[in-house]
Amino acid sequence: MGFLLKISASIDAFNRFVGKIMIWFIFAATVISAGNAVVRKLFSLGSNAWLEIQWYLFAAAFMLGAAATFLNNGHVRIDVLACRLSSRTRAWIDIGGILIFLLPLCWFMIDFSWPLVARAYEFGEMSSNAGGLIRWPVYATLPAGFVLLGLQAVSELIKRAGFLAGLEPDPFAVSDELEGHVTPPAEAALETAGEENK
Fold first, then answer.
1. How far is CA 76 from the centre of its chain?
2. Most buried of 115, 136, 187, 190 (most Cβ within 10 A)?
3. 3-state DSSP call for residue 93?
């Protein structure tokens, strides 16, 4: 299990690094968007290439940053139900969700999208807009994003199994604290601490 936890830590570190790069992609898209608006208003100039690079950057940030969002527990959950369950129950639900839904989805999307990227690269597919960009780099963010998300799913699976085996800390404690939720075991601990302070 120790070896698997090291693999998990390596995946986490890589996706955390990619997530930090994606912050700069969002910043670049914002600056380009503002620059385009100013140039268009002041000088009546425009460029399809500059317009397209904005959504290329946004698409990359969205797809490649999904794994970092998963790492930081930033995806939508049904908190009304989840916060009422114990951490162990939530870990089992996560394991089931990763194995039954997330990993098969990642495999399907990679298998589905890769031929589109290869075809666009082979034929040098270009934007239909005058002065537009080549298409394969933005297409490539789809399989690349699902590869990263699939790797992060494996990492989260390892961490949930490690938690259930008593080798990893509660994966929900930090996110619950930030969101103002208290899981039942934590609530019991708070009550015990309160009684000791009386």
1. 11
2. 136
3. helix
